[in-house]
Amino acid sequence: MAKIKIKFCCTECGSESPKWLGKCPGCGSWNTMVEEKETTVRTQGLKTSLKGTKEKPLPIINIEGGQEPRIETRLGELNRVLGGGVVPGSLILVGGDPGIGKSTLLLQTSHALSAQGLTVLYISGEESVRQTRLRADRLGALSETLYVLCETNLELIDEAIEAISPDLLVIDSIQTVYEPSVQSAPGSVAQVRECTAHFMRIAKVKGIATVLVGHVTKEGAIAGPRLLEHMVDCVLYFEGERHHSYRLLRAVKNRFGSTNEIGIFEMMESGLREVVNPSELFLSERPLGVSGSTVVASMEGTRPVLVELQALVATTNFPSPRRMSTGIDHHRMALIIAVLEKRMGMFLQNQDAYLNVAGGVKLDEPAVDLAAAVSLASSFRDVPTKPYDVIFGEVGLTGEVRAVSRAEQRVKEAEKLGFKRVIMPENSLKGWRPPAGIEIVGVSTVSEALAAALS
User: Fold this and answer.
1) Is 298 domain-assigned?
2) 69 marked ligand binding residue
3) Residue 29 Rama label (left phi>0; alpha psi -120 to 50; beta)
4) 157: number of CA atoms within 13 Å, CB side?
5) Residue 282's closest CA among 325, 253, 248, 252?
6) Looking at the record, which segments are called Lon-protease-like (predicted)?
7) Which of 402, 322, 398 shows the shortest CA–CA distance to 369?
8) Mean pLDDT lowest for which of 132-136, 205-209, 220-224, 320-324?
């Protein structure tokens, strides 16, 4: 007979305790210990399952190298984020808010791979097969090698995998799948951990590329133990506002590629459409001839993206002025305001300051500092910037403008979109020749940049 015990698991790190604790002893998080039922079963045959393959250690120079083979989808933005395509045998975790479009993206990806002759098994634990067919009709994702199954029992899912032997396996979602031998509700810490470990073994042993859909918490993190993100090979976040049509696909972990790339999609009635030129998207509603608005050339991985920065500086009625930023680290914003006060003589101690990146993009590179400084100064002086200027550069604490990487690519992107002038660090002009159709203004201090942009 199986003996049932009660234990408490942390939803952040998976740490276990025989009694409830307010603070997790593993990660230090508060109020994350939840009750779980632990079933102790007989260990007959356990030694056989733990023997392993008896492989011997090898010198690393004797191990066969080479690049991982990839399966390219017909979605170029997804290929970019994954690093070139789906790697066979990889385990991918896709997270996002409810209704953001995770199932739509994976169904379109499944259809793109099945159209190439690959076998895809799409397992839905939240929708019936008829609901999945209705979505496929709307997306035009119908193929003979795309199999759909509505099941949450892990043992029955194993039988379907053995019968079909797919090249791609999609589990939508991991929180609905349960292992019958684990005496916990689906979606609990124990169930999510055991089911993910089982799919990881399937992916590695059989070479099946597996995609897991994960729910997210109200803070935006993937629900379940933090161990879940450590077990998989790639973690993708599908971001965006439900009331807006644009979606961002971002990799926060990728063992087979870079984590700096982003993919941009637009939600249409017939599914997700790739946005090939995101700069035109982010600048489509930009107002001209207003104060506080600048265009910055930022790098998202290997892709230059032009984004609008908006600043608003207004007199405050409170003893302590407000500093709010969206899309930019607020600590960086406070540093730029301090530089403007100390080096440029702007009295901002009685001014509220707001900084926003239009389009919902998050910019975390230092090259946006100079554009943020110009936006804040433009709004404070109420002097509009030039509508066809692009600004980028890193700002130091002494008011100097430092060089940034890949300046040539940023300038070429600005020229392609019809901008007439670029204000950039003077030291970034070395080693390459600017295009003939655009004016380059090299600056070494913030005061020079403000004189060029606001004159």
Assistant:
1) yes
2) no
3) beta
4) 26
5) 248
6) 352-455
7) 402
8) 220-224
pLDDT at residue 38, rounded to an integer: 63
Could you tell me if residue 54 is inside a domain? no
Running DSSP on this structure, what letter comes out for residue 68?
A: P
pLDDT band at 1 (very low <50, low <70, confident <90, very high): very low
Please indicate if the annotation marks 180 as binding a ligand.
Answer: no
Q: How many CB atoms lie within 10 A of CB 122?
A: 27
Query: Would you say 444 is a known binding-site residue?
Result: no
Residue 98 is assigned to a ligand binding site: yes
CA dist 299 and 367 (Å) reads 9
pLDDT digits (tens, 9 = 90+) for 327-369: 999 999 999 999 999 999 999 999 999 999 987 788 889 999 9
Residue 362, marked binder: no
Given a cut of 60, whether residue 265 has pLDDT beyond it is yes
97 is in an annotated binding site: yes
Q: 291 and 205: one domain?
A: no
Q: Are residues 225 and 134 in the same domain?
A: yes
* Residues 288, 258 share a domain: no
Looking at the domain assignment, is residue 49 inside a domain?
no
Residue 99 annotated in ligand binding: yes
Q: Determine the Cα–Cα distance for residues 62 and 50; give it in Å rounded to an integer.
A: 27
pLDDT at residue 6 in the model: 81
Q: How many domains, the chain?
A: 3
219 confidence band (pLDDT: 50, 70, 90): low
Residues 75 and 130 in one domain: yes
Domain shared by 146 and 230, yes or no: yes
Residue 127 lies in a domain: yes
One domain, residues 257 and 120: yes
Residue type, 278: P
Mean pLDDT of the chain: 88
**Domain that includes residue 174, residue range:** 70-276
Considering the domain architecture, whether residues 207 and 340 belong to the same structural domain is answered as: no
pLDDT computed for residue 58 by the predictor: 86
What is the distance between the alpha carbons of residues 171 and 103, in angstroms, rounded to a whole number? 10
Last residue of a domain, one of 276, 291, 315: 276
Burial of 250 (0-12, 13-18, 19+ CB in 10 A): middle
Percent share of the chain, pLDDT over 70: 92
Nearest to 224 by CA among 181, 176, 180: 176
Residue 378, annotated as binding a ligand: no
